[in-house]
Amino acid sequence: MRQGTQQGRSWRREIAELAALFLAVGLAHLLATLLGHEDPGPVVLIGLGVALILGAAVHKRIGRRPARRGAVLPVDDGAGSPMALWRIRMRVVERPGRLATVAGAFGRLGCNILALHIAPTGSSAITPAGCDALDEFVIEAPRDLALDMLARALAEAGGHDVVIVRAQVKDLTDPGVQALVLAQRVSADPDRLPEAMAELLRVSQVEWRRPGDTVDEGAELNTTMVISVNPDRALLIRRPELPFTPTEAARAAALTAAARQARYTPSP
């Protein structure tokens, strides 16, 4: 079917070219007759005919020439990407030049800083040497980079209590914007509070607890959080690999308050 269509198009093109040839020959003969007493018609007609035939042949040859393709560039689909995402939290003494020193340590190991959040630790006062702060980075690092080498380099740059855990792309979301979006979600549907809390604190599971239920007392400091939702129930959140910060606790309390207000505030 496709071959028949191509042959039909070829015949139509040949007929159109032949018609154009006849028309050009007739016009040329008429022009030559009007221009002078002599009749140079045969010479002009032959010249124009040959020119048109050559033009049609060249056009046909160009039309049959395959289109030149551009250079094919290799495309990396990301499957063999040599980089890995890590979330790093450490306590530092904030003073001029400290962040530049830490950034230099990352750079020397081939790491790229994708996100940075700085929060006060809430445990130390400001001193002439600086004040304690909690720096949290999301970085991409070479996959073959040893974590102990990374932790040692950060310690030499002034980091203390360095914790390194796996990161995900969603960890690059701005925490403030994320908290506002989740607050709007639980305001519209308070029953989605556990789901929103898990997303806010980056944990896999949030459990309901009742007053008097036991909590894992063997957990490390600040890795377990209990948030009262109402007099009858509370949320139990665990994150053993990464302690909660005071800022995260404040955001969790604000999210719970938004759900509580939506649940118990009567509609006007």
From TrEMBL:
Ranges that cross the membrane? 15-35, 41-59
Please give the PROSITE patterns that the UniProt record associates with this protein: ACT
Question: Which InterPro entries is this protein grouped with?
Answer: ACT-like_dom_sf, ACT_dom
Domain of life from the UniProt record: Bacteria
Q: Where is the ACT domain?
A: 87-169
Cite the entry's keywords alphabetically. Answer: Membrane, Transmembrane, Transmembrane helix
Q: What is this protein called?
A: ACT domain-containing protein
